[in-house]
Design brief:
Largest sheet: 7 strands, mixed
Strand order of the largest sheet: 2-4-6-10-14-13-12
Number of helices: 10
Distance between the termini: 69 Å
Helix content: 10-25%
Structural class: alpha/beta
Number of strands: 15
Shape: elongated
Order of helices and strands: HHHHHHHHHEEEEEEEEEEEEEEHE
Length: about 450
Amino acid sequence: MTGFDGLPEGSYPPAIDPETGMVPMPPEAGYGPIEDLPEGSYPPAIDPETGNAFLPPDDGYVPPIADDQDWGDYSWDSVNWDNSAVEDNFDWGAVDWGDLEWEGKNADAEAIDWGAVDWGDLEWEGKNADAEAIDWGAVEWGELDWEGKNADAEAIDWGAVDWGDLDWEGKNADAEAIDWGAVDWDELDWEGKNADAEAIDWGAVDWKDLDWEGKQSDAKQIQWESVEWEELDWAGEDADCKNIDWGEVKWTDVDKKAEIEFEKIEFSELDKKDFKSLAKKFNKRKDLELGSASSDKLKGSKKSETMIGAYGDDTLDGGGGKDKIIGACPESGGGKNEIDEMTGGQDKDVFVLGTEDGVLYDDGKKKNGKKDYAVITDFNPKQDSMQLHGDSGDYFVDDRQKNGQGWQGIVYDSNQNGLLDRSDELIAQIPADLGLRDSVLEKSIRNADFI
């Protein structure tokens, strides 16, 4: 709008007071000539039908800023956020963020377009830093620009964000809008009672956003001893554990007492160095025994333990306690070309022959799988149980015993025809000298823990 020729009929051109940013009401006779307007004012037109002031068509609109501006009284909802005027003329470092109203339906935080904020203008350090005054839970993270050289994420000092302000749960949580791969993890404060790592809900981090590879990857910047593993989601198709590259975790830094569900990690992502670090640290625990990339002999204690043989032909003996015994890597393809011997020992033990990912000891070949299986040396159906993938209709007992010799096989019936054929998989053998009837073993299959 360049003049007053195109004003709606009945409109008048009021002045915007540059000191207050407010439009004063005209005197009864209206304003006189334009030279009567306050110095520095811009005369927009007010539509008499709506009462709304028209914004200039070409160069955007930023309400005037007084020298002693109270930013809580600033007309944030009048800013034309879609125009370059904000980017070109607004000094975000001059905003006194402590003046703003952060909560409520009409809060200033609701009116600000957070993607238009020039985060590089802000003061990030010190007692009176802008970052200290911002309510980070009121920031609309979804409005930010996350990618590119000049992205908002590059300008934010992530160590100055008060992570405790954020909303971590729910469909519209802040954590859902943040691109976790754009967070500069090495800027965080990792140590101490009030560390950023303590305030972050690690279960709300979208791990698949992270950059896992390379010298400067997110995985290299995270201090793994500070991760609260118990906050992670360990179950389900999109569980956190499925989105972590376990080969990029620095195991030497992980706390020995970390509440990691090791039967849910991808052992196939680990290398020999990782296995060495795992055994050195975690096998000192009384509730865990981990194997390696080769054949191992694992001996349990009198305590209840989880034992994982991983790769190779392993021998696992639970000893006493209620043990969970897994001879192979507990993931898809685990147990291929392996023969593992599992002994539970005293008390109630669980022998794992399947996981969420699938059936263990399945080589994927149509040869009955007689070259890879587990041998359960002391299965006692009165106290022990099995963990299987699928449901009871997927398995049957193949009797290969005679006169107390031989074995009974637990077979994965891939085509569910109840007959042993080339498409089926032998996954476990029960020695005949245990004297178990087929019907007893079949009942144990029906009562197995299916996953």
